[in-house]
């Protein structure tokens, strides 16, 4: 399982990575500090010949400077529109804005919405739901 974690907070990146690796020790986890870095990684996977690292799952922060999670999603979906493989997305946020949850539900790729800090039990439910 390939996981891309995108969050502008280094501590949250570390927590998210540890939760994933505790649940799925063989997972390949790539961490990015911005949506821009995440898009560059996706582009490398598509055009750079590292298709085996294309993410199966993306853990995505909503509130980030420069490019928020929804902007990332829109750009990524446009970028991969001709790809056979489509990643599942789980929003991981500290936002209490109900509008964020409602907006996330308009994206078929979004399969979960979790609060920070990420907890193993919540992530395990998502992984089992997605058959990972």
From TrEMBL:
Keywords: Phosphoprotein. It comes from the Bacteria. One of its GO terms (biological process) is phosphorelay signal transduction system. SMART domains: REC. It holds the Pfam family Response_reg. Residues 2-131 form the Response regulatory domain. This is Response regulator receiver domain-containing protein. It comes from Schleiferia thermophila. The lineage of its organism: Bacteria, Pseudomonadati, Bacteroidota, Flavobacteriia, Flavobacteriales.
């Amino acid at each position: 399982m390939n996981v891309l974690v995108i969050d502008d907070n280094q501590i949250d990146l570390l927590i998210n990575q540890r939760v994933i690796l505790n649940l799925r020790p063989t997972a390949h986890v790539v961490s990015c500090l911005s949506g821009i870095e995440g898009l560059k990684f996706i582009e490398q996977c598509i055009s750079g010949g590292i298709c085996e690292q294309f993410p199966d799952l993306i853990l995505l922060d909503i509130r980030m400077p420069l490019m928020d999670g929804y902007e990332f999603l829109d750009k990524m979906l446009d970028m991969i529109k001709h790809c056979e493989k489509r990643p599942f997305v789980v929003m991981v946020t500290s936002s209490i804005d109900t509008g964020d949850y409602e907006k996330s539900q308009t994206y078929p790729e979004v399969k979960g919405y979790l609060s920070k800090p990420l907890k193993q039990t919540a992530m395990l439910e998502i992984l089992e739901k997605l058959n990972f």
